[in-house]
Amino acid sequence: MTETGAEKKSGSKAKKRRSKKDIEIERLRTELEDAKKQALELKELAQRIQADFDNYRKRIQRENELKEKYGCEELIIRMLDVLDTLERAMAHEKGEFRTGLEMIKSQIESILSEFGVRGFESSGAKFDPNLHEAIATGEGEDGTILEEYQKGYILHDKVIRHAKVKVAKR
């Protein structure tokens, strides 16, 4: 073989080597790009999971606040029935026994107040379906409450018992 032929032969080997190197470099570049894409996807997934967890934590915190605020609602509603019975008993009693009943009533109202319960007066007010339940009608200025049969109560900002009332209707 001549020198020129040997150079051609070694040159073609170099081209093959370079092409193998180029192929390897291209493969590594592709792997790097794929790894970058996967890392970006995983980062976005982690951010979504973090946001979901933050939302979950906030929702649980709100639910716990509501449980704390309104958790005793059922007990309070039942106590309001006891308070009504006590008021009916007071209406028929006089003297020292009535004084004792008034003291008990005052204690119950004080305890209910500590828990955020307050009653509202309805007689003479305008009928509000958010606060009142009309169970009778009578003559008078349209929409005015003529009589309150059962007092209504609010726990914090929520009506827990609508007042049962008689409403004027023309």
Mean pLDDT: 89
The helix-strand sequence is HHHEEEEEE
Secondary-structure-based class equals alpha+beta
Which radius of gyration do the C-alpha atoms yield?
A: 40 Å
CATH H-tier superfamily of the largest domain: Head domain of nucleotide exchange factor GrpE
Shape: elongated
**Number of DSSP strand runs:** 6
CATH hierarchy, class of the largest domain? Mainly Beta
Instruction: Output the CATH topology of the largest domain.
Output: Nucleotide Exchange Factor Grpe, Chain A, domain 2
Instruction: Report the sheet with the most strands, covering strand number, pairing sense and barrel closure.
Output: 3 strands, antiparallel
Q: How many helices in DSSP terms?
A: 3
Under the CATH scheme, the architecture of the largest domain is: Roll
Strand arrangement, major sheet = 1-4-5
Residue fraction in strands = 15-25%
Span of the ends, CA to CA: 125 Å
- The total domain count is 2
Helix content: 55-70%
Stretches where pLDDT is under 50 for at least 5 consecutive residues are none
Name its key features:
single chain; 170 residues; alpha+beta; Nucleotide Exchange Factor Grpe, Chain A, domain 2; 2 domains; three-stranded antiparallel sheet
Would you kindly provide a written description of the structure presented here, covering whatever features stand out?
- The chain is an alpha+beta fold and 170 residues long.
- The chain has two domains: 1-70; 73-168, Head domain of nucleotide exchange factor GrpE (Nucleotide Exchange Factor Grpe, Chain A, domain 2), CATH 2.30.22.
- The protein contains three helices and six strands; from the N terminus they run αααββββββ.
- It has helices spanning 3-70, 73-91, 96-114, and strands at residues 117-120, 132-138, 145-150, 152-155, 158-161, 163-168.
- The strands form two sheets. It has a three-stranded antiparallel beta sheet. The protein has a three-stranded mixed beta sheet with strand order 2-6-3, with no helix packed on it.
- Strand 4 (152-155) and strand 5 (158-161) form a beta hairpin.
- Helix 2 (73-91) packs antiparallel against helix 3.
- It is elongated.
- The mean pLDDT is 89.
